[in-house]
Amino acid sequence: MSTIKVGVIGVGQMGTYHAQIYQKLPQVELVALCEFNDARREQLKTEFPGVALYKDYKDLLADNSIEAVSIVLPDNLHREAVELAVKANKHILLEKPLAKELEDGKALYEITKDYDKVFSTGFLLRFDPRFAMIKERLDSGELGDIIHCYVRRNSPIIGPRRYIGASDLSMHVMIHDIDYLNWWIGCQPVKVFAKNRSVLLKENGMNDVIYAIVTYENGTVACMEACWTLPENSPTIIDDKVELVGTKGVAYVDSCDYGVRFVSEKGIEYPDSRHWYYVNGEVCGDLAEEVMAFVNNVASNTKSIITPKQSYDALRVVDAIERSIKEGKEVEL
After folding, report:
1. How far from the centroid of its chain's Cα atoms is residue 221's Cα?
2. What tens digit of pLDDT does each residue of 305-316 get?
3. Cα–Cα distances in Å, from 167 out to 115, 146, 333?
4. Cα-based distances in Å from 42 to 27, 35, 51, 256
């Protein structure tokens, strides 16, 4: 098998995980990193010795030897980077969402829907076994037709402080739930009613909490809750739950304690054991599965399970949520 040369654009927390995962894969050579922040780029010289470093992703994309890239930039910077990566004929793994604004998302959908290279959006819950099991049981008919779903995704205030001006709660957090609900339900969302409240993040023009009710073509109703202003000392990085009620059965996901707990002088802690935890010094979890699936798509010349249409549909729901909040009424997609 020939080695796939890859680069990572944006090397903050998530981009670092991408780079570390690529480094552990035998069929991949991590050859380039792009980071705009000068101080962070200096750190990368030590963290990833021998890997080429760029400040401007245009220069990285101009390297014809690089076949594939992870784009891990703030949500509001996705459009130009993807457009240039497509022009450069790269395989692309784009961290979710497709874009911050629906107009940008539609433009990216149009240029990627028939793209002859691999294009995938990083909805990592597609690679979480809990959510995949529910999809399999729905497809087999074991749970029957979905009557309704309740989902929640709450997290500490540390997160949104990193995204001021670049994103907000609906497109950065709630979109995870929108994507897998669309995937499970299997038909188009048609109506959305949403309410918000902004208290702790009001001065930043961001939402503290959103509740949204989404109605689908087949009558399924989904209720979503998202909040990212839990206290900084919350024992878990994400408190998420799912309750799906079908005509033949029910499915539950309760992942807030991650199955492991520590009590020490630091307090009570439920460390991550799902998304990007370390085992023997290497990043594991559903993020690693997502990156490995992307690499396998590139190696085997196959398409991602996450299509541009699905990524765009998730953003359409986000846009409807924001319109409903602004207009104070139920809106149609």
Report:
1. 23
2. 999 999 999 999
3. 27, 31, 21
4. 27, 10, 12, 36
